[in-house]
Amino acid sequence: xxxxxxxxxxxxxxxxxxxxxxxxxxxxxxxxxxxxxxxxxxxxxxxxxxxxxxxxxxxxxxxxxxxxxxxxxxxxxxxxxxxxxxxxxxxxxxxxxxxxxxxxxxxxxxxxxxxxxxxxxxxxxxxxxxxxxxxxxxxxxxxxxxxxxxxxxxxxxxxxxxxxxxxxxxxxxxxxxxxxxxxxxxxxxxxxxxxxxxxxxxxxxxxxxxxxxxxxxxxxxxxxxxxxxxxxxxxxxxxxxxxxxxxxxxxxxxxxxxxxxxxxxxxxxxxxxxxxxx
Length: 278
Description:
This protein has 278 residues and is mainly α. It has helices spanning 2-15, 19-46, 49-74, 78-105, 107-130, 145-148, 151-182, 187-202, 205-212, 214-236, 264-269, 273-277. Helix 3 packs antiparallel against helix 4, helix 4 (78-105) packs antiparallel against helix 5 and helix 4 (78-105) runs parallel beside helix 7.
């Protein structure tokens, strides 16, 4: 009986390894998938390149959140940590920034930027896959990259995240200046502002690590950050605008009234009173 109880407790503890972190990470992954499907649907309809870039970034986000949920629940391993580090710490923010470049600077600048982003992501993927671990990987906690990786993966993560966040913030500032100068539509200003705030929230995980713990901090920032960025997308797409009242179908104007014209036959058959008396 004692062995049976011990086995049940072991199974339950294995199932509920990190319930809070797992639940929040799963929620973040679900929001990312829903967000990505929304942008992908719009891209399929209008073929706007910034929506395709956002769809790719959100797919990476969903993969990173899924890796976080799996690591928090089943335990961290080398492949799971590498997937999380590549898509969550390196590639996601630059691709998200690429969407901002397409949205604000146009297709030509976006195409040029996409080549650089693709090269950086491909190089980072090779580095993260091949980089050896300098220390054993903890199973029950999300370890910082500086404790297990050499300098190159960490430099890539710092440069990619900082550069992408700087591009998104610069886009928000430029949008504010352009709207103020041209008295343009304020949806673009609010949209880029929300996307910038959400990006900052995603990048604040390092500060939150010391307060909540690594996995909790990353899970919370993932969920809050992607929700704020999703709100920015909804503003940009016009989902929050008031719909204009539906126009009634146009009705052709009535023809102007005119007195009836007698036909020639009726005129010939009519006689004046003098002709009848005659």
